[in-house]
Amino acid sequence: MISGSTRAGSTNSAALNTVADVLGEEIRPVLYQGLAQLPHFNPDDDHDPLPGEVARLRGLIAEADALLFCTPEYAGNLPGSFKNLLDWTVGGSETSGKPSGWINVSSAPTGAAGAHHALRTVLTYTDARVVDEGCADIPVPRSVIDPATGLVTDPAVRDAMAAAVRSLLAAA
């Protein structure tokens, strides 16, 4: 699971943590938390030995049965730090054939459509297998996130997230 946000208290990270909470018995979720530690992508550095955090990221992707993303939109597109992460996946083969999906938590009028269109483009380019049933628009207002646990509390939202992830896992 990869959050496209570096923000503390991000609704995107809350969504992924909630997925882990809801489906913890069914899956072995691994939330990648090194987004801010990735070096800026440079094609000259995309060879062995890879920078340490890049090698760790690619190793986690290679070990995963499926990939679940949750990213905000920034200025109509993917946030730069998340696009940087995706750029580091282009030169590897770890995403090839990997079932992939996302939960879009935006409650903005545009629904973060630009970010998710760009995410689909990059995943398709890296030969990931986008599972449409594992891609869901589930608005998560901050009011349904418990400040103490950082988890989504609304049962309908939790159920919708679980259903999307189960669909993704069924394709794995």
From TrEMBL:
Enumerate the Gene3D superfamilies for this protein: 3.40.50.360
In what residue span(s) does the NADPH-dependent FMN reductase-like domain sit?
Answer: 2-134
Determine the domain of life of the protein's source.
Bacteria
Give coiled-coil spans as residue ranges. Answer: none
Q: Would you tell me the protein name for this molecule?
A: NAD(P)H-dependent oxidoreductase
